[in-house]
Design a protein that fits this description.
Helices cover 66% and strands 4% of the residues. The chain is mostly helical. It is globular and about 35 Å long.
């Protein structure tokens, strides 16, 4: 599943009550301008690092869970079991978080 800036923004605001751009001191919308998987992976890694550093692991998990399971117009946007299983397999076979993000980005772009 690719990163959706609008869903992250809404999720962050829902969980924390704050604007992610000012709180994290980076604009999630910049992600839309990135062209290569490596730059996208680097951006997400930095943003997730700031999310955990400026909140807590528990809050970061809530933000990302809300982002993945956001319902709009009465329709759930949760990721399905197939994607969860495939993501776990990719993570288990990855050397590090950067390698995982690269593999995941490749998988998402192929679908």
């Amino acid at each position: 599943m690719p990163f959706h800036v609008d869903r992250f923004d809404a999720s962050f605001k829902e969980v924390t009550g704050k604007n992610p751009s000012s709180f994290l001191r980076m604009n999630p919308s910049e992600y839309k301008l990135l062209k290569t998987p490596a730059r996208k992976a680097s951006f997400i890694t930095r943003m997730m690092g700031r999310l955990v550093a400026k909140t807590s692991k528990r809050t970061a998990e809530k933000v990302m869970l809300e982002c993945g399971c956001m319902a709009r117009d009465g329709v759930s946007r949760c990721i399905n079991e197939h994607i969860i299983k495939r993501t776990k397999e990719l993570y288990a076979g990855s050397k590090n978080i950067e390698d995982f993000i690269q593999r995941y980005t490749n998988m998402a772009e192929a679908n």
